[in-house]
């Protein structure tokens, strides 16, 4: 097992303790490689009255995927900061009819370096991510989100 996969397994366990809702969403093990993150979920607990993926569940998984990638990145830097979603835009492209996966990746190196520098200097930084909900190679939903990291106040 790679260092990143062990980190992902420990992170998911921690996350389930922090956000009880996700214990009921059929999450599968995370796939994390230090640059990108995949969060898979089962359709059954996230289904709507039409038998397809409930939009609120898809939005939750996508939002959480982006939040988790930023949080994991900060932890890789040895930081324990708060992360919040500041703004998001959702595009529902296709109905979700089976188990699905949310995918996202860190932006280009220059953007990440700037984010890291702002966190060190100001204790606050923003990262924009695109998260896609996919079934196989098909993108069913896309979330464009802006996540803000904030240094925790000590004391």
Automatic annotation (TrEMBL):
Domain of life from the UniProt record: Bacteria
Xref: InterPro entries: HotDog_dom_sf, YiiD_C
Boundaries of every Thioesterase putative domain copy: 13-150
Listed SUPFAM superfamilies: Thioesterase/thiol ester dehydrase-isomerase
Pfam families, sorted: YiiD_C (PF09500)
Ranges that cross the membrane: none
Protein name according to UniProt: Thioesterase domain-containing protein
Organism, scientific name: Pontibacterium sinense
